[in-house]
Amino acid sequence: MVCHRECARAHRAVVFVLDEFDLLALRPKQTLLYTILNAMHSAQVQSVVLGVSSRMDAAELLEKRVLSRFSHRKLLFSSLGDGVDPALQLLRDVLRIDRPPADQDDAAKAAYVRSFNQAVDTTLASTRVKELLELPVGLDASPRGVCDLAAAAVGHMSRTSGVLRPEDVQFAVTERLRGALSASLAGCSVLELWMLVAMHRLRTWRNRPAASFNEAWAECTGTVGAATNAVEVRARSLALPRLRASFPPASHLPLAVDPCRSAAC
Fold it and tell me: Which domains does the chain have, with CATH numbers?
C-alpha cells in the first residue's frame, strides 16, 4: 500500500504480471491474489493485474472472495498460425546472422556470415526439412518451442563446416519429440482432456479427418451414455459452455483433430 500511495502521488501506475496464474490460484487460501486484487479497490491505487496462463479454466479456480474482485477480461492468443510456413519463417529469422561483423575490415568474418545465412536458407527451403518440421510444429507451434528447436539444431552443427545442415535439423526434431507428447498434455484441465479424448475417438474410431464442436460434444456425451434424470441434464448444460472454451486449445494438441472452419464449429 505504501508503494501504491507513492505511485499515486507521482502519477504513476503499477502493473503486476502474474505468469502461470493458475499455479497461484491453486495455493491454499489464495492470499497473494486476494491481497493484490483487494488493494486495487482503493481510490488511491492506480494499478492493473495481468494474469498469464495456458489454462482456459484458470479463472474458475479462484475462490469467491477473489473472484468477486476479478474483472473477467480475457485476451486469447493463438499459436503462430496453421501449417509449417509461419514456424519456418520464425526459425529462419532466429538462425540467420543479421548483424555484420564488428570489424568491417575482416573479410573472413563477412564471408562466413554470408555462407552461414546461405546455408540456413538452403537447409530450410528443402522439402525434407519441411516434412521433418510438421510433427514438432504440430506438437508445439509456440515461439518458445521454435526457438528451442533452433538452439538444438545449432548445438548439433559440425565444428568443421560451421554451417547448418539438414542433419542438424533432424537431430533437433528427434530431441524435441522425446517426451513432447507427455509435456503437451501435462497442463491440460480435465475438460480439455475430455474434449481431447472425444476428438481422438472421432478420428480413430469414426474415421473423421475433421470435426466441429457440436460433433465433439456429441462424442463426449456418448462416452458416458445418455442422461437419465434431471440432475444429469442440468450438469451437462452447465458443462457445455466450459467445454466450448476448451475446444480451441484441445484442437491444437497432438492427439486432436483440427477443427473445421464452418459455422458449426
Answer: 2-67 (3.40.50.300), 85-182 (no CATH), 187-251 (no CATH)
